Amino acid sequence: MQTQFDRQKSSAGSKLVHLSALYLFIYYGLGAFTPLIMQYYQSINLTGTQIGLISATTPIVSIVTQPLWGMICDKFQIRKGVLVLTLLVSGLIGLLFPAVSTFALVLILYTLLSVFQSAVVPVSDSIALGYVKKYQLQFGDIRMWGAVGFALAAFVTGLLIERWGPSVIFISYFAAMVAAILFLQRVPVETAAAPKFTTSMLAGIKDLLKLPRFLLFLAASFFVFGSINANNIWFSLYYQEIGGTVAGVGLAFLLFAGSEAPCMKLAGYCARRWGLELTILLAASVSAVRWFWYSSAPSTTAVIALFFIQGISVGFYLATAAQFVRENTPAALQVTALALFFSVGHGLGTMLCNLTAGWIQDTYSTLSIYSFFGSVTILGLIPLLLIRFGPWKAVEEKEDVGATG
């Protein structure tokens, strides 16, 4: 006869499967869209400057809309309803892209898409973290399925584009969002355990900006993360310019994303052995070398063969950056610190890099974009070196805030 413990264990396992599938399809949609959207832009003859302006839309919109979505979720306790809404509406907006071919209309659609898409990742993370906390699991065991979905989507969609054209991007995106909704319906929301979104980021910012190590890390992330995120948009154009195919772009992203998971585990070992600061410095240094190497127009074979550089640079940085923020800010301000970190690195830094990359592409060449990325990353190394060798010490307060994953 099945005991209550066995039933709880079976129920937890079932929820884990549904949450993993939710992440698989959310990131499958993002993997079909983000790395390959350049194929659509090229098909409607947008200029580099126009592409840069459109690509800068998401980080600008997210800075405003993510806190608003968070307040709606907290006030009305409707995380699941908000996630269903944003998944469905963003998928439907995606289907409209093949019907437009002018810069103005694409910009409007992309802005609308960003409003709803900006809620998908933080709200799904909130739901998953509530489940993880209740059952004492590792968030990484769920989140890794997002990396799998992203990698598979980039590869499969790249193959399909070569056969049926860029419209496949939006069909794949919509189908993935619908599939995610279907699995979301089987996921109960652990309301009591789910972490709250901050309702005001302004309250603790003044105190955080008095911390030299945190301020320097914000400056570093502005440059390092900005170029990393912008590469996701411009790599497709770059890879074809050095002789690659659309299918090759998909293969490259499959290998790139696939290398991040094992490197994240390796980053944990390096951080324990040599410390967070040196591990982050290594990741940023490898990024700088990577971008300068790309600007020299290597063969596509070499770019594919050295795919693991993505894992060493991006995987190491992603695995250690949030931990550095947690360890170098007071426990009472860590939610605000993480929000500020993402806004500066993923938001403002990405916006600057995309806008500048568009101008460079029109004025000079796609290869010059990667010289710019390398130079920007070098600027990011300066504050990281100051953190490592400067006189400022870490925050004394080491209170555990119960962060998972």
TrEMBL record:
<keyword id="KW-1133">Transmembrane helix</keyword>
<feature type="transmembrane region" description="Helical">
    <location>
        <begin position="274"/>
        <end position="293"/>
    </location>
</feature>
<feature type="transmembrane region" description="Helical">
    <location>
        <begin position="81"/>
        <end position="101"/>
    </location>
</feature>
<feature type="domain" description="Major facilitator superfamily (MFS) profile">
    <location>
        <begin position="15"/>
        <end position="392"/>
    </location>
</feature>
<feature type="transmembrane region" description="Helical">
    <location>
        <begin position="107"/>
        <end position="132"/>
    </location>
</feature>
<keyword id="KW-0813">Transport</keyword>
<dbReference type="GO" id="GO:0005886">
    <property type="term" value="C:plasma membrane"/>
</dbReference>
<feature type="transmembrane region" description="Helical">
    <location>
        <begin position="47"/>
        <end position="69"/>
    </location>
</feature>
<keyword id="KW-0472">Membrane</keyword>
<feature type="transmembrane region" description="Helical">
    <location>
        <begin position="369"/>
        <end position="389"/>
    </location>
</feature>
<feature type="transmembrane region" description="Helical">
    <location>
        <begin position="214"/>
        <end position="236"/>
    </location>
</feature>
<feature type="transmembrane region" description="Helical">
    <location>
        <begin position="144"/>
        <end position="161"/>
    </location>
</feature>
<feature type="transmembrane region" description="Helical">
    <location>
        <begin position="167"/>
        <end position="184"/>
    </location>
</feature>
<keyword id="KW-1003">Cell membrane</keyword>
<dbReference type="InterPro" id="IPR024989">
    <property type="entry name" value="MFS_assoc_dom"/>
</dbReference>
<feature type="transmembrane region" description="Helical">
    <location>
        <begin position="331"/>
        <end position="349"/>
    </location>
</feature>
<keyword id="KW-0812">Transmembrane</keyword>
<dbReference type="InterPro" id="IPR036259">
    <property type="entry name" value="MFS_trans_sf"/>
</dbReference>
<feature type="transmembrane region" description="Helical">
    <location>
        <begin position="21"/>
        <end position="41"/>
    </location>
</feature>
<dbReference type="GO" id="GO:0015213">
    <property type="term" value="F:uridine transmembrane transporter activity"/>
</dbReference>
<feature type="transmembrane region" description="Helical">
    <location>
        <begin position="242"/>
        <end position="262"/>
    </location>
</feature>
<dbReference type="Pfam" id="PF12832">
    <property type="entry name" value="MFS_1_like"/>
</dbReference>
<protein>
    <submittedName>
        <fullName>Maltose permease</fullName>
    </submittedName>
</protein>
<dbReference type="GO" id="GO:0015212">
    <property type="term" value="F:cytidine transmembrane transporter activity"/>
</dbReference>
<feature type="transmembrane region" description="Helical">
    <location>
        <begin position="299"/>
        <end position="319"/>
    </location>
</feature>
<dbReference type="InterPro" id="IPR020846">
    <property type="entry name" value="MFS_dom"/>
</dbReference>
